[in-house]
């Protein structure tokens, strides 16, 4: 990948900010670097085809579409994994999740997955002089074992490089259903302590399994634990009644915290990882979005996420920060319709295609599992357009290292800064992807090879193709984005070489 000094020679067009260049000599001394702010907006279970800027016609997403129009829309943008926890692990650490056997979807009481001693992406930016914050979904574990939810919860985000954190521990369908600010449950009444278990219920606490008359959203699988806000969750909890969230207000709560963070830090370089919870289940948007999409709660939740992005970008502009801020919008994995709650997502989806032109979705080895929306905006510095460069969230670490003059702490993460800035059409040459349970595949340029994984071809619970087959699969995604024609036999040498390359990397 080209060095930053070479990028300077490419920047005659004015596309590259001086702040992204090497320090300059001035009056016999080195002038200090003024780095841009960096914001990552990460949606949850949002598909490539869920946005207007990626071809959706049944959903209107003007807020995100405006962000796309202001910068680069990548057609080959990827997360690393088709499920949440491993995908987020890669984003934060710059490391392939399959290198960590614990990098699977975690329960809400799991210990911290990220090594507190490692140089994570936020810690690297902190070393570069950034104030760092995370708001929204975490799902990377907390503590070192059994968590005391009534005291200081550590280690967590603040121990892996974030100056400020306001998070939910796992997902909106898992206990505990409380917000945690800088390691302490927000709004907790000490007289009503929280207890959490993923093994057994607490006496007297209603559950979706035993008290179906108390829930307002039916179940299709799982989610039969503690009832909070009329919705049963995964896991069990008692106590903390005043601290429990109201799903309908979650988006507003996170938005206010994110806006407050950038307002408080507008006079210094900051990095914000703003992890939206939409459109993950349970899909319970604010009343102002209910029924607005015509696609049911899932569509309404996407409209809420779009509104959040639009409001956040307005705040960024109001504070005068737009021209010195790189904003990235993407998703943690591909889409899913029925993911455990009877919200009629399948019945109301109509001819909307959340997966775009691809096959698969969340949990799948097929392309829609990891091929996600990927937008990068930096007004005045990144020329608006479309890029076909192969880029991945795992590369934020190396790319931001180059941008801020820091050493890259991960050999898995590649510097694709020129592609992110629109200065090069070249991204990665190859990428190892996974389904979220350690089954990997390899993409090289336009080719993708899925090894022979005998198993069920369909995740029946969510009606998504697994990508498993007793035969090797090889597809050319440029000519066949829907992965309809397996070329493993006529291209046997290529398929074999790619499999060998993938196994060598692992």
Question: How do you describe this structure in short?
Answer:
The chain has helices spanning 4-10, 62-69, 84-93, 121-127, 250-264, 296-318, 345-348, 396-404, 417-420, 492-505, and strands at residues 25-26, 29-30, 37-43, 72-74, 77-78, 131-137, 164-168, 179-181, 184-185, 195-197, 227-228, 231-232, 236-238, 270-275, 325-331, 374-377, 385-387, 391-392, 430-434, 440-444, 447-450, 458-459, 464-465, 473-476. With 506 residues, it is an alpha/beta fold. The two termini are 22 Å apart.
Write the layout of secondary structure elements.
Elements: H1 4-10, E1 25-26, E2 29-30, E3 37-43, H2 62-69, E4 72-74, E5 77-78, H3 84-93, H4 121-127, E6 131-137, E7 164-168, E8 179-181, E9 184-185, E10 195-197, E11 227-228, E12 231-232, E13 236-238, H5 250-264, E14 270-275, H6 296-318, E15 325-331, H7 345-348, E16 374-377, E17 385-387, E18 391-392, H8 396-404, H9 417-420, E19 430-434, E20 440-444, E21 447-450, E22 458-459, E23 464-465, E24 473-476, H10 492-505
């Amino acid at each position: 990948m080209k060095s930053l000094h070479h990028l300077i020679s490419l920047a005659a067009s004015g596309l590259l900010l001086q702040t992204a260049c090497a320090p300059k000599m001035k009056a016999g001394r080195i002038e200090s670097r003024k780095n841009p702010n960096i914001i990552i907006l990460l949606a949850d279970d949002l598909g490539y085809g869920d946005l207007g800027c990626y071809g959706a016609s049944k959903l209107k997403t003007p807020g995100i579409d405006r962000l796309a129009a202001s910068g680069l829309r990548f057609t080959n943008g990827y997360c690393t994994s088709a499920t949440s926890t491993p995908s987020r692990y890669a984003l934060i650490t710059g490391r392939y999740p399959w290198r960590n056997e614990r990098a699977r979807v975690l329960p809400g009481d799991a210990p911290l997955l990220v090594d507190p001693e490692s140089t994570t992406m936020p810690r690297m930016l902190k070393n570069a002089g950034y104030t760092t914050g995370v708001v929204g979904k975490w799902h990377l574990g907390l503590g070192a074992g059994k968590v005391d939810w009534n005291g200081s919860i550590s280690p967590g985000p603040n121990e892996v490089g974030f100056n400020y954190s306001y998070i939910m521990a796992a997902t909106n369908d898992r206990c505990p259903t409380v917000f945690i600010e800088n390691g302490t449950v927000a709004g907790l009444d000490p007289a009503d302590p929280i207890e959490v278990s993923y093994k057994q219920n607490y006496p007297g606490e209603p559950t979706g399994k035993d008290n179906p008359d108390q829930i307002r959203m039916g179940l299709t699988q799982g989610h039969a634990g503690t009832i909070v806000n009329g919705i049963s969750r995964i896991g069990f909890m008692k106590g903390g009644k005043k601290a429990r969230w109201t799903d309908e207000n979650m988006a507003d709560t996170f938005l206010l915290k994110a806006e407050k963070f950038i307002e408080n830090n507008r006079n210094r370089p900051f990095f914000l990882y703003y992890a939206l919870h939409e459109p993950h289940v349970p899909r319970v948007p604010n009343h102002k979005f209910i029924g607005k999409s015509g696609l049911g709660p899932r569509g309404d939740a996407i409209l809420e996420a779009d509104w959040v992005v639009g409001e956040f970008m307005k705040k960024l502009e109001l504070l005068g920060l737009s021209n010195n801020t790189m904003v990235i919008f993407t998703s943690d994995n591909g889409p899913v319709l029925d993911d455990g709650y009877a919200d009629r997502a399948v019945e109301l989806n109509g001819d909307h295609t959340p997966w775009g032109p691809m096959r698969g979705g969340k949990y799948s080895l097929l392309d829609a599992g990891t091929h996600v929306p990927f937008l990068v905006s930096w007004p005045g510095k990144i020329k608006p357009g479309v890029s076909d460069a192969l880029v991945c969230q795992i590369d934020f670490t190396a790319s931001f290292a180059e941008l801020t003059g820091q050493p890259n702490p991960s050999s898995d993460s590649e510097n694709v800064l020129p592609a992110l800035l629109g200065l090069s059409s070249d991204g990665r040459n190859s990428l190892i992807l996974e389904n979220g349970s350690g089954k990997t595949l390899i993409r090289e340029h336009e080719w993708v090879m899925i090894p022979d994984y005998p198993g069920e071809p369909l995740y029946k619970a969510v009606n998504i193709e697994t990508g498993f087959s007793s035969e090797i699969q090889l597809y050319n995604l440029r000519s066949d984005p829907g992965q309809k024609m397996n070329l493993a036999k006529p291209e046997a040498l290529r398929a074999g070489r790619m499999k060998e390359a993938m196994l060598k990397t692992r």
